[in-house]
Amino acid sequence: MDAVLIGLSLGATAGVSPGPLLVLVVMQTLRHGWRGGTATAVAPMLSDALVIVLVVLALDRLPHWTLSAIGLLGGVYLAVSAGLQWRKGAAVDHVVSDAASARTEGWRALLQGALVNLLSPHPWITWAAVLGPLFVREWHSGPAGAYSLVAAFYLALIGAKVVVALLLARFRHRFTPRAYSATMRSATLVLGILGLVLTGIYAAELVGTATT
């Protein structure tokens, strides 16, 4: 029970915390409706398997700068993605209404969300600093507790983001064209700022590691 409560608490907090994936959930929901938003929200199910394996089994054997390198790649990717989104613009005609197109965009949103999450430092740091040690501790007590911790964490993490997507999708058609455009521009700007900040932070860490 303790493992479940810990997992739910950590997952719910992470699910609503500002970050690249949450911004992407907002953007995809506004552009493609609930399908795009929920597809992006469940992206950790696709990306975090690799994160978990590397952190639990191998990260302690890798060089110290590994997390910084991953964070740097993530920051660059977010900044470039934001730049491309900004050039594409925030026109209302990007909203998808055709069902087949919506399903296609849902798959694209899932893959983009998985890539953003994989290159984001957040899941790596969360697993390396918090969930990894907790998982190992629970595993020593019994596999059931370890699996319950992970299941509860991702249930709350994805559930929180799905709720955000569904609520936003419910009201997105009430947006005026100007409000829609301003919201998309703002989300793109936030994504770009996050990318630049992460790039600067992790580039500085890599330089510091190289000079020591």
UniProtKB/TrEMBL annotation:
It is a multi-pass membrane protein. GO terms for molecular function: amino acid transmembrane transporter activity. InterPro entries: LeuE-type. Keywords: Cell membrane, Membrane, Transmembrane, Transmembrane helix. It is found in: Cell membrane. GO terms for cellular component: plasma membrane. Its main location: membrane. It comes from the Bacteria. PANTHER family: ARGININE EXPORTER PROTEIN ARGO, ARGININE EXPORTER PROTEIN ARGO-RELATED. This is Threonine/homoserine/homoserine lactone efflux protein. It comes from Arthrobacter cupressi.
